[in-house]
Design a protein that fits this description.
With about 300 residues, this protein is an alpha/beta fold. Helix content is about 40%, strand content about 15%. The chain contains eleven helices and eleven strands. The radius of gyration is 31 Å and the shape is elongated.
């Protein structure tokens, strides 16, 4: 293979062509204009081509010089970008996580300080959004999704444990005129709807066909954390995953009047590129996530299991 011209000559030509000036190229590369001129002349002799017309007030690219410089400018820009990226990566080992909002706000964020304490060399960048991301094309290390699992040969999928559900209410409800003593008492309460949940109040009502909920009424939210907040404020009752409501339950701001309902549905799952599964930051987060989920599900064991389930 024919040897490439020296890098110094290519740098001098690229800078002079991009800036349209030997003097400006010299300033950028910390050289003298005569050194730039010398390097370009050497490159022309090496290639056997004329790249610049020397004119009275400066220089102008020849037609072949324009074509060559266009290619080199793109190449040097890519080199600079790669260098900037690797330098940025060495400054901080950033782990970018894209997560559905309710899990990010209700469960993940309050626990990240534990991950940071165990892995001080990793800086977490958390993005919360409902919209799915493309791990193949976007600069995302991990994604935590809710709902349908779309298959991609390049992406690994790790399902969360199946999350139990519960009817959740504030302790104030149990001290009101209409406490929740039996499932039929739900009909006397304001129903809070989480509209994008996989399992909704209609599914719960199907467990108790002896009475009918008026599902046309009640406030509606597209985020579970809003439903949980309203239930915590005793403005109604919610049907939500215990994982999302764990902090409020642990603080006795929400209670489970009918115990928890087992489900056979995977709500959340973790995604990552298969080629990256052995990266230390990916492996450390996955191990930590498994341990945190195990701790949460061990906590749920204290609650009675309702004989009915989804």
């Amino acid at each position: 293979m024919k040897k490439l011209p020296p890098l110094k000559s290519l740098q001098a030509f690229e800078a002079a062509a991009r800036l349209n000036s030997f003097a400006k190229a010299a300033d950028e590369l910390n050289l003298t204009p005569s050194a730039i001129s010398h390097q370009i002349r050497f490159l022309e002799e090496r290639l056997g081509l004329i790249l610049f017309h020397r004119v009275h007030k400066g220089v102008e690219l020849t037609e072949i010089g324009e074509k060559y410089s266009a290619e080199l400018i793109t190449i040097f820009a890519a080199l600079n970008k790669a260098t900037d990226k690797i330098l940025e990566d060495t400054k901080s080992n950033i782990l970018t996580i894209h997560c559905v909002p309710s899990l990010a706000y209700q469960w993940l964020m309050p626990r990240l300080k534990k991950f940071n304490a165990l892995n001080p060399e990793i800086d977490v960048r958390l993005q919360a959004a409902v919209e799915a991301v493309d791990l193949v094309t976007q600069d995302i290390d991990l994604a935590i999704r809710y709902g349908e699992n779309k298959s991609d040969a390049n992406v690994a999928y790790w399902p969360f444990p199946q999350e139990p559900l519960a009817v959740l209410c504030s302790p104030k409800i149990q001290k009101s005129k209409h406490p929740l003593l039996s499932p039929s008492d739900v009909t006397k309460q304001t129903i809070i709807h989480s509209e994008i949940n996989i399992l909704k109040w209609q599914h719960w009502n199907n467990l108790y066909p002896q009475f009918t909920l008026d599902l046309s009424r009640g406030p509606r939210f597209d985020r579970s954390f809003m439903s949980i907040k309203m239930a915590k404020d005793a403005e109604g009752i919610a049907l939500e995953s215990l994982l999302l409501a764990q902090n409020e339950i642990a603080a006795n701001k929400l209670i489970l009047p009918f115990g928890m309902y087992k489900t056979h549905t995977t709500f959340h799952y973790l995604q990552f590129m298969k080629k990256n599964e052995n990266l230390p930051k990916i492996k450390k987060f996955r191990y930590w996530l498994e341990e945190e989920l195990k701790e949460s599900f061990d906590y749920f064991d204290q609650f009675p299991v309702n004989e009915k389930g989804f």
